[in-house]
Every structure is written in C-alpha cells, then in structure tokens.
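Table S7 (text form). Paired inputs.
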Amino acid sequence: MGTYEKAREFIYRNARPLDLARWQYHFEKGSKGAVLDALSYYQNEDGGFGHALEEDSWNPNSSPIQTWCAVELLREINFNNKDHPIIKGILKYLESENGFIKGKWATEIESNNYYPHASWWNWNPDSEHDYNPTANLAGFCIKFADRKSPLFYKACKIAKEAANSLLDRDRVDDGHLLLCYIRLYQCCIETDTISLFDIDEYSKKLKKFVSQAICNADINWSCDGVAFEYINAYAHDLQSISLSSDKISDIANYLKNNQQDDGSWNIAWNWSDYAEEWAVSKNWWKSYGIIANMLFLKRYQNNILQKDCKI
C-alpha cells in the first residue's frame, strides 16, 4: 500500500469531522463549505474559538490562540468572504478585547488551567506575551475589518509595533512567532497596506529569519506543519529563502521513508499531565500531521523534484 493510501485509511478511521473535511477538500475534490461547516462547531457565541480546535488545549472558552487556529484554517482553504458568519464572528471577538492584555492578544488565558492541556498552555499572570498570535490576528483585521472601524485602526497600530519588534531582532527562534510575522506581511501585501512600516526592510529581515529557521528545522516536527508554511509562503521564489530542490527532496524522502504502518507520522511532543486526554489529542494531531505532510508532497514533489516520486 502506498503513502497516499495508508494516509487516507488513517484519516477515514480516526480523523475528527473537521480534518476529514480538510482531507476531502485537498485530496478528493471536497468543498470549502464542508470545511466551514465543521469549523463552525468550534466557534462560540462571542465569535472566538475554543473546544480544542488547537489540539493541545481542551478549553471550550474562546481564546486568541484557538481563534488563530481558525484564521490559519481559513487561509488554508483560501476563504476570503468578509460577509461570512465565521469571519464576522472572529472580528467581533477581536473587537471585544477578550484576551487582549497590554496591547497584545494573549498566548494563554486563565481558564486554560481548568481543562486538560499541554504544559505550554498553562496560564501564568506574570507571563510576558510576544507577537504570537498578535501579529497574525492584526493582519487578519487589516485584511477583513472595515477600514473605517476602530478595530482596523487598532490593528494598524499593532502591525507597526510588531514590525518594529521584528526589525529590532537578530533572530527568531520561535517557529510559530515567525509564522505570525509572515502572516502579517502577507496580509499587508494582499491588501496593499504597505505604508504602515518599511515593508522592504521587513521583507529582507523576514527572509533571513525564514532561511535560518528552515536550515535549523527538525524534520521530526513536520507534523505541526509550521516549517512547511514557511516554504509555502515563498513557493513563488524558493531561492529567496535559500531553499534548494535538494533540500525539498530530502524532506520528501524523509516523509516517505518514515511513515508509520498505520499511515501516520510520529508526533514529536508530549503532555506532562492528562495522559488519557493526551492519547486522544495525539490521535487528532496525527490526522493534522498527515494532512500537513501529504500537502507538502502534493505541492512540491512533482513540480520541483525532477524525479518520479508520485504519491
């Protein structure tokens, strides 16, 4: 049985309805509507997202991080309808400032501590919050909020501050933070909102950090999909981030050679507590990882690798 067939079997036997809909959208001509319908069940009345949309936090309450996950999934299926209830709901949540602390959307919220979760989602009142997920959510607001709204102006202010924070750095070691900086850049380019900060210097710094991150990436962590999103962001010009076809070939070969018998890939992280819940979340992550890894193979192995490695 080939790589694709094994992956498909795992998805159909184990995936949440949301990930099954994502799989069908990407590989079986499924609809965006099915993905949106499944995603809507994770959205709360306040417009934010919870209910373990982020697989490592079972908090049902809305949080900036779980809302960030929804924003990422909307980008994944290239959904940009400003009038859709999901997007309107997200803007409503972000406008409410729920989870907004000291000029940023918080990485952790207090109610995380009352539900099963990975240790990195523990809430601490003394935590200092960086621009994950704030830079990404600011970009979302720039892209979708009414340009005359207070939320849009707030997002522009945050975007300037986030850009300055990137320009002041020598490196970015947090992969998710780097992805948030990428998303801010993409949203500004997509909306022609390029006068907020020095977009050219920002782009140069971003490419430098992305190149460093890809060179240092641990392929064992491929299931979180972050490194692949770096590559996707520069797919039009991989040389701009110093990525060769040999590197892509190495990744593709690793994925094909390290798929487990059940069709999934190893999950490289663990929870320190809540063993029973982690066993469930780990299975959810396997479905997420399968989609990330198979999308990488689908997108790059045939049009970049000059060899026969069809899935």
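Next pair, protein 2 of 2.
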Amino acid sequence: MIKCKKDLIKYLNEDRIALHIERTRPRIFSDEIWRYEIILRKHEYWFNCGSGIFGRLIKKWYAIRHHRMSVKLGLQIPINVCDYGLRINHYGLLVISSEAKIGKYFNVHQGCNIGVNKCETDAPVIGDKVFFGPGVKIFGRINIADNVAVSAGSVVTHSCNISNVTLGGVPAKIINPNRGNPFSISNL
C-alpha cells in the first residue's frame, strides 16, 4: 500500500521495471498499459495520502481518470490491491476484486478473473512473483504461495501453499512440482 511520496516513487519505478521499459516516460501514442499503471498508482497515492480540499480534488480527478482508462482498456483493478512490480501483459478483460490481496511482481495476462465467492470478504490472497496465464479464474478464500505459475485457462478451486510449482487444469492441480514462475525477476 502506498503511504507516502517515497512509496509512490518506488511503486512507479518497480512497475516500469516489471514491464521491461527503460524509458522514463510513456510514449504519446502507445504504452497504454504503462499509463494505466501510473494512473492506478497515483490514484492509490492520493486516495491514501490526499487531505484537505486540494487533496480531495486531486483524488477525485485520479479516480475519474482511473475509471475512464479501466473502461477503455477493459481492466478492472481496484486501488490498494496489487503490491509493486505489477506486470499486465495485455489489455482486455482483466477483473480483480477489491477484496483480493496480491503480492509483489504479479505477472498477469488478459481474461483473468480474481474474485470473491459467496461471501464478499472471501477473496484470494496471492503471494509474490506469481504468474497467471491467459484466462485463469480464481474465486473465494484461496491462498497461492510465492513463485507459482498458473497455466492458461486454469480454474483454481483450492489453495496452493507450495512454492515453486506450476498449476494447471480444471480444477487446477500441480502439473510441474519442480518449476514455478518462469518469468520471475530472479535478482530481487
């Protein structure tokens, strides 16, 4: 969670690194995902730290920009859910519940749903350096350990408390006990 300007700078930098971008600013006619992540992080910052009339105005402005970019790109990622190092690989149909908790260096493709089940507070808790392939579905009170890969089209119905494994299938089960996230940032 972003609690100060220093946190904001760290989140923005780690997100840029996770997206494998070396530039310091997004391009005007591309880099939509990077611009979306910048708006998401600034919305988080002003939501958590904005006070006074100026802070409330900026918070509202970033809330509107976040909503508009979400609709444009088909991404629904609430604030204060994803830790730093977020990597969204493609825009289009990505839904994350506001109750979910996602760790550092989350790598996600399009078509994924991370949501609640019957009870609105029963949401997934996803560890650090986790990879979700296209079309992964995960609902309810489910924990995913660190450095886990979930293959495309999988439906995760049970917790996985074992690190460095690959899950796949419907329902998802361990399909490779010796290899976790192949895209993990190894030097962090």
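Residues 52-73 form the longest helix (22 residues).
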